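Notebook entry, cofactor series.
This is the third protein in the set we're modelling with a bound small molecule. For this one the ligand is adenosine-5'-triphosphate. I'm keeping the input format identical across the series so the outputs can be compared line by line later. Sequence and SMILES below, as received.
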Amino acid sequence: MNYRFQFGVVWDNLDELFAGALLTFQLGVFAFAGGALIGLVCASLKTYGPWPVRLLVNAYVVFITNTPALIQIYFLYFGLPEVGVRWSNEACLLIGLTLNAGAYLTLILRAGFLSVRVTEIEAGQTLGMSLVQQIRYIIVPHIAKSIYPALANFFIVVLVMGTSVGALIGVDELTGQAINLSSVNYRWLEYFTVVAGMYVVLTFIASIGLALLGRWAFRVKAKIF
Amino acid sequence: MAHLAVNDVRAKYGALEVLKGISFSIEKGEIAALVGPSGSGKSTVLRALMGLTPVTGGHVALAGDQLDYSNAKSVRAARDRMAIVFQQYNLFQNMTVMQNLTLAPLKIKRWPRAEVESEARRLLGLVGLGDKADAYSDQLSGGQQQRVALARALALKPQILLLDEVTSALDPELVNEVLDAVGKLAAEGMTMIIVSHEMAFVREVADKVIFMDGGQIVESGEPAALFDSPRTDRARDFFSKILRH
Ligand SMILES: Nc1ncnc2c1ncn2[C@@H]1O[C@H](COP(=O)(O)OP(=O)(O)OP(=O)(O)O)[C@@H](O)[C@H]1O
Ligand SMILES: [Mg+2]
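Returned structure with ligand:
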């Protein structure tokens, strides 16, 4: 073992790694936000919709949660062009991650819907609340509080695991950048050490931000570490 | 004219007729107690009055106004003038005690904040929780939560208060603190319909006891008369079981 670490080249290309980290963060946020929207709609349909719609939502959720995200994204990137649908690699990644997150978030949100207590809603009704007021003052805050920890965890999963799949279809997010740069000068060990550190910092910042948001907005007693 | 007149009210759950023609009335300031075996329909009477369980027949008149439970406006009027506290604590868990009390007066009634808050403080004092305004429900004992629920029901200044077994989910040592609060309201002249298994308490505060069985009123009268010399076999049977020490 006489490997000599040379971090110099990494520092020289730090800009590009930061650009990758920024893209990772953006992809994570957008995929999560889009997934949350899909999840909200699907969880409502799954809970309150007629049975054919529920069946459709179930099929979507089962299909997505039982296949690897990589396959889903390859399907969009390599599969769809065969039938004439061609999207950029970044679009494929974002759409794939969003659809993937949507299925998992459907499950999380549905658990939230089921956790609303009938007695609290009845209390609201007997106090004279309209349906809109019940949703605004009872249902939404309750769901938000009960699923917040699961949401926060899932955001980290999307941010780290989800986005890194992009490297395999040539998206220059953090992992992709690391592969690009290190394959030029073969400083794999140095690049991946630094990138791993950057992922840790990224998730650390996201976790603290989410924990503080949860405490402030929903009284969730999240452990920060 | 009676303050609340219930006439031949019926209610169903699916095909099962749970209330088979209930009639009774109470005057302003009176306290009526509904008693009877489990499943006899006591909760359903209160829920029907609040428009939570659909009424399928009969009439209810409140202060002379006929209530039509198939009409949203009329249901709102019922909820405006009557308030209910349930057996299970059902405080809004995402809000403080103070917010629980002030939400409806502020957002639904749009009463002025200063007035609403000072009234809320008075009510919390009345139920002995003056120091808990900023607590959340998961920081309170069952008895405390139930007293907050009482105060919340009163914050809308109801004309009639409905209490459904407000002590039966509580540990024995917490029952009295809630009953004391209800007793205070009784002393203030609050009109109430209470469902309770605390017969000693009923005997003390109720003006009228209504004994139900199988979705019907079997017998009613003053507490002492009903408890000590019931006229029907069913009532005699029931009271001999629960009043025996
Ligand atoms: N949501 C419901 N769906 C179907 N049946 C119901 C429902 N709620 C109550 N019932 C039935 O209605 C009848 C009356 O119930 P209710 O809760 O009014 O009785 P109760 O006198 O309050 O009894 P308890 O003392 O146990 O609270 C019972 O036979 C009960 O099984
Ligand atoms: Mg009951």
